[in-house]
Amino acid sequence: MSDGGWQAPGHEGGNRPEPEPYQSAPAAGQSSATPYAAPTPAYTPFPPPAPGAPLAFATSDRHRDRVLGGQGYETPAYRNDSFAATSMVLGVVGILVPGVCLLAIACGHYARHRLRRSYEGGRGLAVAGIVLGYATTAVWLAVALLYVSTRALL
Fold first, then answer.
1. Which whole-number Å values give the CA distances from 60 to 55, 66, 67, 107, 131, in the listed order?
2. What is the pTM of this model?
3. Residue 108's closest CA among 141, 84, 72, 75?
4. Greater confidence, 25 or 110?
């Protein structure tokens, strides 16, 4: 059957291996170990922790059930933490009003501490509030030092 063309290795000379026959299905009423066995009862991938054990995520049961429950295709609608938003607002206000930036730093650090243990959003707002707070504190301190040093020279 060779016509002089290319043939795959192992198939030279026209001899093809015979395919293995399909296995027959078991008769009705017979049981066999198949990969399509009866479904097992519902499995919870994240069982509740033992009493007194430290929690990985210290969140409310409402958040935990919403995120870890179901088929896994649904995500919760994240809400921004109120302290994170407050930190961001105080950081912006601190540009105009001296001293308010210290409150932005405090709220931002407290928000980041709270967000470590929750599914709420707002980490970026908290970091932005912290950065604005530290930056405006540095600017206001530089302005105060410049004012004091020029006042001493006069």
1. 11, 10, 11, 22, 30
2. 0.52
3. 84
4. 110
How far apart are alpha carbons 81 and 75 in whole angstroms? 17
**The two structure tokens encoding residue 110:** 């407290």
Estimate to the nearest angstrom the gap between the alpha carbon of 90 and the chain centroid: 27
Whether the Cβ atoms of residue 136 and residue 91 lie closer than 8 Å to each other: yes
Q: What pLDDT is recorded for position 118?
A: 84
152 Cα distance to chain centroid: 54
Q: Which residues contact 59 (CB under 8 A, 6 or more apart)?
A: 117, 118, 119
Residue type for position 147: Y
Q: Identify the pLDDT of residue 12.
A: 64
Helix (H/G/I), strand (E/B), else coil: 80: strand
Q: Which helix (H) or strand (E) holds 63?
A: helix 61-68
**Per-residue pLDDT tens digits for 23-80:** 666 666 665 555 566 666 666 666 666 676 655 555 556 566 666 666 655 566 678 9
Q: What is the mean pLDDT of residues 133-140?
A: 96
CA dist 131 and 128 (Å) reads: 5
Closest CA to 106 of 140, 78, 132, 124: 132
